[in-house]
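User: For a reading group we're discussing how well predicted structures match intuition. Take (2,3-dihydroxybenzoyl)adenylate synthase. Before you show the prediction, I'll give you the sequence so everyone sees exactly what went in.
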Amino acid sequence: MLAGCPTWPEEFAERYRQSGCWEGITFGEMLRQRALALGEHIAVVCGEQKVSYAELDRRVDRLVVGFQQLGIKKQDRVIVQLPNIAPFFDAIFALFRIGALPVFALPVHRENEIVYLCEFSEAAAYIIPDKDAGYDYCELAKKVKTSVPGLRHVIVAGEPSTDEFHAMHDLYVDEGEELQVEGLEGPRSSDVAFLQLSGGTTGLPKLIPRTHDDYIYSLRMSVEVCDLNKDSAYLAVLPIAHNFPLSSPGVLGTLYAGGKVVLARRASPDVAFPLIANEGVTITALVPPLAIVWLDAAESRRHELLKLQVLQVGGAKFSSELAKRVKAVMGCKLQQVYGMAEGLVNYTRLNDPHDITINTQGRPMSPYDEVRIVDEDDNEVAYGEVGELLTRGPYTIRGYYKAEKHNEKAFTADGFYRTGDLASMTPEGYLVIEGRSKDQINRGGDKVAAEEVENHLLAHPAVHDAAVVAMPDEFLGERTCAFIIAHDQAVTSNELKAFLRQRGLAAYKIPDRVEFMDEFPQTGVGKVSKKSLREFIANKQNVLTH
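Assistant: Thanks. Here is the predicted 3D structure of (2,3-dihydroxybenzoyl)adenylate synthase, as structure tokens, for the group to look at:
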């Protein structure tokens, strides 16, 4: 096991093995099994490119050798920041076979986040596209390389802008060469397979260690609940490095089922709807703001959605009024999904009654998921009462990577993860998510840590104090509002936003609104009352809209 990664106590690990939760296979073995069984059946569609299971397996073996020749070895950490393109699968499965660990960054991350990830994970390599959506990732990589001298390699899925970077297409060894892959001493199924990013409430993300055993079990359960098979076609419009489109059932669950993954570079109906029609897409996943856009577009384009059977919505709470529209407008079933990169995944079932599907966020997918809803003293509350959600199980982690002090707060003594989500439970075991107990803003599925943005704002010489809170938004659910107490010198909202961009903060973390105050309201013990600030901005919005 990778140092710094807490794991399951042996009594739990043995229970999960004996019960058949953990199959004892790695991701590299999973792909090999599917390639042998499915051969030329299409695994991935990316634009005009169609890759079969057999071809994907061969491409991965060829890239394994190339990565090894660069010196990438077992337990090396490799930052993977790729959009929805086919080389994503070549890269991660090659790393899986070696036993190196992908660290999944999102396309929206910028210098601030990537430098931190490289330093904290002690990354050996960084895999990027050349450009995507007009953004130059090679320029970003140059800045990162300057800041992180220990980063040995930058690998570009595309054309590098400098000779010091490696073109990924040059790393595949020729088909005719002897591939020394079968004798490769790869990982065990109990080893950490990759590191994911947490939403984080105290600044930059923590890293979540997921093992081959636990994550493949998560895929298997998702495939069963979502009824996927080799005839299924999953359209990925959300960034596939994110846990939801990666595994619930997502692209990896689709490959586990032997189905077809269809990649979309953008999530707009103009891009996605023709793919649904042309590729026979049966299931896709959206966050609520995108679901609203799709519902509006589907009013006049339902003919393109005839093959779509299931629309999943997750990442943030989906209002019941919008949920009611899905079947009527799009002609497919709605499946609500609530989960987290740390583990627990909940689904409404495809045969659930209508009122459960539109009013709850589902129930745990595994019979081995343990869930508690507790009050401030960790006493369980009654059905229907709101409390903090705690969970443990065969695919929920027992601790973050190299975060011993934080783990003491984030996990109970008996191994339950404190999700930070406020929820209630129906007598039937379905969850209704009521909000967050942590200081975090859920901006349309993108999690913004208030403390991180506040720290950056406080670095500006004109800012005396800063408090960042959520404000309600009909489209995204929540947006961010930064309250500022300025020093004597004047500063504008636009100047502060430009300052945050210059510091390399991702675009979704830039406050949507800035309010200036002479002083902040306080709680009875002298702390900034963020509750009062949230009420203030919500009331101000109401006044402006009425």
